[in-house]
Design a protein that fits this description.
Layout: H1 3-11, H2 18-30, H3 35-47, H4 53-63, H5 67-74, H6 77-95, H7 111-128, H8 150-167, H9 180-189, H10 212-228, H11 258-266, H12 270-283, H13 288-305
Length: 306
């Protein structure tokens, strides 16, 4: 990529293609602090619907001096335009699919139904007799929970994969201009833990012997200070101005957004994600079925990741 192509991408980032995205990645490996290249590269990953977008967004935020500019960029129509067009085309293609008339297929009665009918007849016959049947109490069974085997984990894998696909884990996170709080919260959640490095044990520093001459001089100064007994004027009691502390009446639930719920999910904070969707059910009752399905899928992941 030459300078002319790079300047053209700065002026028209929406014209970015996959080849140029790869070239920008190589540029960043050599010049990691080039903020403009990071912003355009981020746009390329977003266009590709890449799973690396969320990680790269965190990295770009770390290299950006003013994160509000980055937030305005990723929430602009110019940034999100390509993917919106892609989804619009997908919706149109789905609408054009012809659906044939469905045929109702009735299955023959299963052997289980016949067994149930015979059991019902036996119960009815037994109910007609006057004989009292003495039922012996069975000893209570103590069920010890066992850890899932490798086969059980393998059987649960399709269920986990289906839940991850429905929850769109790894998809690029989308923010709107009103979600600055969610963006800041996400950056806070995604902070990397500091690397623990084993430092070489330092040799204990031997205390330097204090110069006896300087110590005597200090003591002499202290004695002179005590003898002179200087009077320190007390500070006048001036009235302290009252501090007005305004309690925020805004409920924390008003800050909850669907994007923030997805952020908790991406961080595998399943309990917080469930709580977030429960708040969203109260905020948006018309989407309660959708949010309830999300909670169910999150619980599936939670059970298989503990």
């Amino acid at each position: 990529m030459n300078t002319k192509d790079y300047i053209q991408l700065l002026n028209k980032p929406y014209s970015l293609n996959d080849k140029q995205t790869g070239e920008l990645e190589r540029i960043l490996s050599e010049f990691p602090f080039l903020q403009s290249a990071r912003a355009i590269y981020l746009k390329g990953l977003y266009n590709q619907d890449s799973f690396r977008y969320n990680t790269e967004l965190k990295k770009t935020a770390a290299y950006t001096t003013d994160r509000s500019v980055l937030f305005d960029f990723i929430t602009s129509e110019q940034f999100q335009g390509v993917q919106k067009k892609f989804f619009d085309d997908q919706e149109k293609s789905v609408e054009l699919i012809a659906v044939a008339d469905s045929e109702v297929v009735t299955s023959p009665p299963s052997p289980t139904d016949k067994v149930e009918e015979s059991i019902k007849r036996l119960i009815e016959v037994a109910g007609g007799t006057d004989e009292q049947v003495e039922v012996q109490p069975q000893p209570e069974e103590i069920v010890v929970p066992k850890e899932p085997t490798a086969n059980e984990i393998e059987e649960a894998r399709p269920e986990i994969t289906a839940a991850e696909e429905k929850l769109e884990i790894g998809k690029p996170l989308e923010f709107n201009p009103q979600e600055k709080h969610s963006f800041a919260e996400w950056l806070q959640l995604s902070k990397l833990a500091p690397i623990n490095r084993e430092d070489a044990p330092k040799a204990p520093e031997s205390p330097e012997p204090e110069n006896s001459g300087s110590l005597a001089k200090k003591l002499e100064l202290i004695d002179k200070f005590i003898e002179s007994n200087p009077k320190i004027a007390p500070v006048k009691n001036s009235p302290i101005p009252p501090v007005s502390i305004e309690r925020s009446t805004e409920d924390n639930s008003s800050l909850m957004t669907e994007t923030l719920a997805k952020l908790y999910l991406e961080q595998k904070k399943y309990a917080k994600a469930i709580q977030a969707y429960e708040i969203l059910i109260l905020k948006y009752p018309e989407k309660s079925v959708f949010f309830a399905d999300r909670i169910s899928d999150i619980k599936t992941l939670q059970q298989n990741n503990n």
